[in-house]
Amino acid sequence: MPPFDVPEGDPFGPHNLPYGVFSPPGSADRTVGVRLGDHVLDAGAAAHALGSPYASLLARPTLNPLLAAGRTAWSDVRRALTAWVTVPAHRETVERFFHPLSEVTLHLPFEVADYVDFYASENHARNVGQIFRPDAADSLTPNWKHLPIGYHGRSGTVVVSGTDVVRPSGQRKAPTDTAPVFGPSVRLDIEAEVGFVVGVPSEQGSTVPLGAYRDHVFGLCLLNDWSARDIQAWEYVPLGPFLGKSFATSVSAWITPLDALEEARVAPPARTHELLPYLDDAREEPGGYDLRITVAINGHEVSECPFSTMYWTAAQQLAHMTVNGASLRTGDLYGSGTVSGPTERERGSLLELTWNGRDPLELPDGKRTFLEDGDVVTLSAWAPGPDGARVGLGEVTGRVVPAP
Amino acid sequence: MPPFDVPEGDPFGPHNLPYGVFSPPGSADRTVGVRLGDHVLDAGAAAHALGSPYASLLARPTLNPLLAAGRTAWSDVRRALTAWVTVPAHRETVERFFHPLSEVTLHLPFEVADYVDFYASENHARNVGQIFRPDAADSLTPNWKHLPIGYHGRSGTVVVSGTDVVRPSGQRKAPTDTAPVFGPSVRLDIEAEVGFVVGVPSEQGSTVPLGAYRDHVFGLCLLNDWSARDIQAWEYVPLGPFLGKSFATSVSAWITPLDALEEARVAPPARTHELLPYLDDAREEPGGYDLRITVAINGHEVSECPFSTMYWTAAQQLAHMTVNGASLRTGDLYGSGTVSGPTERERGSLLELTWNGRDPLELPDGKRTFLEDGDVVTLSAWAPGPDGARVGLGEVTGRVVPAP
Description:
- Chains A, B: InterPro entries: Fumarylacetoacetase, Fumarylacetoacetase-like_C, Fumarylacetoacetase_C_sf, Fumarylacetoacetase_N, Fumarylacetoacetase_N_sf.
- Chains A, B: Its EC number is 3.7.1.2.
- The structure is a homodimer.
- The first copy, chain A, is of the alpha+beta class.
- Helices cover 19% and strands 28% of the residues of chain A.
- The longest helix of chain A is centred in the first third of the chain and has 16 residues, at 71-86.
- At the A-B interface, β7, β10 and α8 of A face β7, β10 and α8 of B.
């Protein structure tokens, strides 16, 4: 079966066409690839063969040039790619530039500039508040409903799906201990998130209003914000998470363009507090996405997290991030924050799923409170697409290896 | 007077030789420059003329290739430069590659990878604690003496000295207000810091012990971590500073190599708490620097901050930052945290100098609690050098311009 003829209902059919960077079999060269079913199209080679003007954006070792090209170019390239894999006249030319997905090496698809992580799920924030501040009058901090809380993470440790994650060591201190101890984290956790990839930069001193979101953001990926809860708990007051997060952040190898997610757009939850004008999206187009993220440990599904429940949208996060005049760069990445729905099996972290270890998960290979060495965590997701099809997001997977 | 013959006692004499990136008069091209007195040597052009093997590191538009070259190359290049500007046989060749400092354009000298900011001054941390948590039993948080507290900042908004800083807008909320308001920050502040520039990267999953500090860190600069205290106060619980800091961070145009600061090394303050082995520097070479940073507003000196009082050293900060396996990249920048000494006129922020606005500073042009539009802030510094000379650090200056 030629790669064009993906099975009916394949979530990576021609309605999807996510972008990545790969090396062909037997080569160390990197170039932009587009996924179709279980194959990868060498998009730059195809563009050259077809005399396409987009070869200069696609025959590149990273997505950054395409990201920087802007919304009109994004649409034009997507339209061209769709034609190449669906119009019979192009198919013969293009067919030889496909590789089976199983035979290529996938790389981090873009050079990450700044990485910001948000905290946009009300369910997640309330769960965390109840776990760590059980005596507080409100499980949310007073600012939570007024601004999308976020912080900067370490962009140099963002890795592509499939990269092993070394268990971090660090300081931890139980409230009853008199001094901290040092050692490998004993509360290694995941955070199931969606990551948004900025294409078009902005000037320092200017802002990016809500309505300009789609002029700047190219697409999205899945993201696992690995977290060492014990390290984080001891270090994070007063300046926030640092070593509890900075050891690794995994992203999917495929970036799904926003244009592939038109049918997935939904309104975010009703707002309970009046928003300042720069965040008030009542008159904007729907800012949420109906994505469902599945979390699996060693192949066993432990959670399904509904992204549609996120209180703050990606457009609001972008408007907030720039309202102080901070500039955007091509390759900026921002995470949604852990995606947790209202029910027990819709939570995006083990912290919540096991209620800080109180209620272990029963897996086929034993109980889990937090991650054990050798555990493989896999996030996968899909969204509704055109004509009842599903749009698949690239999975993000990683294996925990022991501390040295 | 030829540029070699800097006046006796010039803090930018041949014992200093900091590195920057400049454009010659009438050109937009960037190349590495070395400062001598009030002149800049086009180091790449000089290297080419002398047939030096270091031309490939110096005839570049950024310091990154030199940073990545490693400690042996750093020493070799410095030795060569010293010879070029001091040995008569080289002077005739090199003289034509000098430009007056006043005629060149200085640029951000390196591409910033990740930016981390620490909080290493005990005086600063205690002052902030007393101002914001007056009822707390201890002005330091319980973790402060056990680890160097830090967080990631926005590397995309690091700018070179001389760049205007636009007053940021954002949310603020007084405790007595029922909801936040939006507008230009009314508590815009400075933080006088030293920045450390990483040259040699490290692998993800590995650590950089205390003793490897000089194998990885190339040199240091002055750094002003502009801070909007009102925005910061409302946003920072629980995930730390974000928009209150991310709008701009200014660094000096000159990076002083560690080799120029040998005579400035001093032991840090006596440790009051036992340190975990990875931070215990009792048997290491002295980790502090005897730098004095002067803070001036519109040319009027308001503070002189002694860097030798910093509790945590740059080597400890590097060891801590990587102890969880986080990798380093060429161009990583980390700030020391605000430098504040024990007395009132040794404080590195207006927050402390005016005790959160309670005690305004009397300047020739009026009182100051926080910064006003048009204010020019300048940090300068020197350290002891060989034979009684001073080693000057490049100044970092910036003017506050009104919010749009």
